[in-house]
Amino acid sequence: MEFLSYDVAHMLAGGMVLVSFMLLYQDRMYGLLKVFALHAFVLSLSVAWEALVQDAPHLYITAAIALIVKAIIIPLALRRIVIRLNIHRTVETVAGIGPTMLAGIGLVALSMALMLQVTPGADALSRQDLAFALAVILLGLLMMVSRRNAVGQVIGLMSIENGLILAAAGANGMPLVVEISVAFSVLVAFMVIGIFLFRIRERFDTVDVQALDNFRGDR
Amino acid sequence: MLLSNGLDAVLVIPLVSAVILAFLPGYRSAALVNVLASFLTFLAALTLLWVRPLPGPLLQVDDLNIVFIILNTLVGFTTSVFSATYIAHELETGRLTPTHLRFYHAMYQAMMFAMNLTLVANNTGLMWVAIELATLSTVLMVGMYRTPEALEAAWKYFILGSVGIALALFGTILFYVAAEPVIGQGLDAMTWTILIKRVAEFDPALLNVAFVFLLLGYGTKVGLAPVHAWLPDAHAEGPTPISAVLSGLLLNVALYALLRFKLLMTANTQAIAPGPLMITMGITSLIFAAFMLYRRRDIKRLFAYSSIEHMGIITFAFGMGGPLANFAGLLHMTMHSLTKSAIFFAVGHIAQVKGTQKIADIKGLTVSHPLLGWGLVVGVLAIAGLPPFGVFMSEFLVVSSTFSRQPYLAILLVFGILVAFGALLLRLNSLAFGEPKGSMAPVKASFVPMFVHLALVLTAGLYLPGPLVRWFQHVAQLLA
After folding, report:
1. CB-CB neighbors (< 8 A) of A119 in chain B
2. Which one of B172, B198, B385, B391 counts the least CB within 10 Å of its CB?
3. CA-nearest residue of chain B to A140?
4. Distance in Å, alpha carbon of B103 to nearest chain A alpha carbon
């Protein structure tokens, strides 16, 4: 049982890193949204497994929030925005897929090397969760810098938040306050972004952030 | 019941007023409620000097944060007075509609609530939530004019702020992971008052990594050099009262969070010393911002860069550590808040009366608008660090305490301060003197907030009352 619980947790957290890589190379808007939903789904499985293993029922709530809000509501809402704004063909990446993937591999190696080094005292489960979480966070950052599109950046940001929830769930008995607040803040953040997207569209007829840069005043 | 002590009051008053203001039509009454609520919050903060509730699991008032709370609520109050006249003008010119104003006032109080909550939080997680709330409420206000520039500024602030906040949360989680084996699971492992007692037993390697994330994350919100990019845009494109609270308050609040973690780091002797990291970021910000000051064409951006410069000096001072440098850092933070918000009060009225923020289009203010012009002159001289103002004294203390310990660093510090000094005087000369350019229309403004701040800064430069000095020294000891 001991080994099984560890292996499943390992697989699920590793799965999140894998889905983060899938996010990196998506070049279609719909594909991006679907993969993000998958990301959130794997997160909710992973958190639910932590709840079972750690015998921490409050984590089930976190898992449910991840599933309902992030895997279902947000992707659907973003999909509606994409349809309404008619931007599903918009694919703007800064660098090619190859270099981006290579940079991603480097980042994952970095986070493994760093986190496994500094947490010899922590138990195996939270150790590998933290390492994978850092990898997801760094991949999310990479995604944000490699996309010019506002929707792409927002999804990058939310994948970072997924990584944070993975880390928080992996930390033994971390109080619920934080997890709910994370979910809550993502919700608020999403509303803000939604408003922004519409206003950006009103003004520019595009959600390419590059268009905003042209309006940057004197730096 | 809820208002039984000052601690609850500094949270409840802004929160309740935010709700009221969200439903209150009519900008006059809203502005009045805003001023009144800010004033009551300030009074409530003052009562904390005498009656201090015991630290609870979530909230606490101690000798360190009370300085920040009083400064925060004071500048919050004076800015609300300035905001009342500023906003009336924006309504006349049609840049804002009454609906915007309702939103603006509600957000103003929500932001005050979030900042006060950050300062009194006794829990690392709660503090993080409060800073996130403060970020979101200011993002909404920065984008309020809905011009393309304002949207760009708000978007950039939002994205960079969120990334910073995310890194800070990861640092917070790592801190919990380090604390959990020693303290045990649950809220206790995130409570400042408990952490500080046991931190010496934590795993140093984990603390090191955690602090790097916290420094980068909260450092973004402080506006330190490599991660400052949001700051000038957010200052320049939002309403000027928001620029004043951003510079005067929000940067301090983020710095406070960093200071709390620095305290923990120094209490663990085996972890890396946080000082050198903070010194490096501080001095980089100072010198970078000092040079950037020369190329500014927008008056609000000019003073935004000046804020980066001063946050650099303050971070540097706290990084140096030791009673004298900490004392200087605290004093400089207070002086900078008061002076910079006074400057933004002046700049707000100037931009309104001239109808532009371009430095090239504003000339001869002392001739066209003597009161406003001279107010700006006094403010800029003060922020540039000329005697007899308080900023001079605090900068002098930072420099002299550095000279006695690290002479080479002191040379860099003085160099940065002098470069910034030159830039500010150069710009001030064209802004304040010479042939007036632009509108000569009289300005409808309340000068009281600006002159109150400047008078406080001048008084502090000439004479600091004994009890205040002892208080600051006591806090500086705590930080050492």
Report:
1. 177, 203, 205-206
2. B198
3. B163
4. 14
Please state the ipTM of this predicted complex. Answer: 0.87
For chain B, how big is the Rg over CA atoms in Å?
21
Which residue is listed with tokens 């003085």? B414
Q: Which tokens sit at B13?
A: 């008053």
Parse chain A into domains and list their residue ranges.
2-213
Q: How many CA atoms lie within 13 A of B220 on its CB side?
A: 25
Q: Tokens for B265?
A: 């780091």
Residues of B in contact with A216 (CB under 8 A): 149, 152, 233
Task: Identify the pLDDT of residue B4.
Answer: 66
**Which helix (DSSP H) or strand (DSSP E) does residue A100 occupy?**
helix A97-118
The pLDDT-based confidence of B257 (bands split at 50, 70, 90) is: very high
What sign results for the dihedral spanned by CA atoms B289, B292, B298, B299?
positive
What is d(CA B343, CA B417) in angstroms, rounded to the nearest whole number? 18
* Nearest CB neighbour to A119, from listed B129, B206, B232: B206
A168 contacts on B by Cβ (under 8 Å): 173
Nearest residue of chain B to residue A155 (CA atoms): B159
Residue with tokens 């980089």, as numbered in its chain: B284
Cβ atoms of A172 and A160 closer than 8 Å? no
Using a cut of 0.80, tell me whether the model's pTM lies above it: yes
The per-residue pLDDT for range A70-118, each reduced to its tens digit, is 888 888 877 877 777 776 666 667 777 888 889 999 999 999 888 888 8
Sign of the four-CA dihedral A27, A189, B244, B61: negative
As a whole number of Å, the CA-based R_g of chain A is 18
Whether B220 and B161 have beta carbons less than 8 Å apart is answered as: yes
* pLDDT beneath 70: ranges in chain A: 1-2, 87-92, 121-122, 176-219
Buried b (16+ CB within 10 A) or exposed e, A132-141: bbbbbbbbbb
Touching B: A residues 144-163, CB under 8 Å: 144, 150, 153, 157, 160-161
Here the tokens at position B391 are 């900023």
Please tell me the distance from the alpha carbon of residue B244 to that of residue B85, in angstroms, as a whole number: 14
What is the share, in percent, of chain B residues with pLDDT greater than 70? Answer: 99
Per-residue HEC secondary structure of chain B comes to CCCCCHHHHHHHHHHHHHHHHHHCCCHHHHHHHHHHHHHHHHHHHHHCCCCCCCCCCCECCCHHHHHHHHHHHHHHHHHHHHHHHHHHHHHHHCCCCHHHHHHHHHHHHHHHHHHHHHHHECEHHHHHHHHHHHHHHHHHHHCCCCCHHHHHHHHHHHHHHHHHHHHHHHHHHHHHHHHHHHHCCCHHHHEHHHHHHHHHHCCHHHHHHHHHHHHHHHHHHHCCHHHCCHHHHHHHHCCHHHHHHHHHHHHHHHHHHHHHHHHHHHHCCCCCCHHHHHHHHHHHHHHHHHHHHHHCCEHHHHHHHHHHHHHHHHHHHHHHCHHHHHHHHHHHHHHHHHHHHHHHHHHHHHHHHHCCCEHHHCECHHHHCHHHHHHHHHHHHHHHCCCCCHHHHHHHHHHHHHHHHCHHHHHHHHHHHHHHHHHHHHHHHHHHCCCCECCCCCCCCCCHHHHHHHHHHHHHHHCCCHHHHHHHHHHHHHHC
Give pLDDT tens digits for B347-363. Answer: 999 888 888 888 888 88
CB contact under 8 Å between A157 and B174, yes or no, is no
Q: Kindly list the domain boundaries of chain B, sorted by start residue.
A: 282-480
For an interface test with A, give the residue of B169, B288, B358 to mutate (most A CBs within 10 A). B169
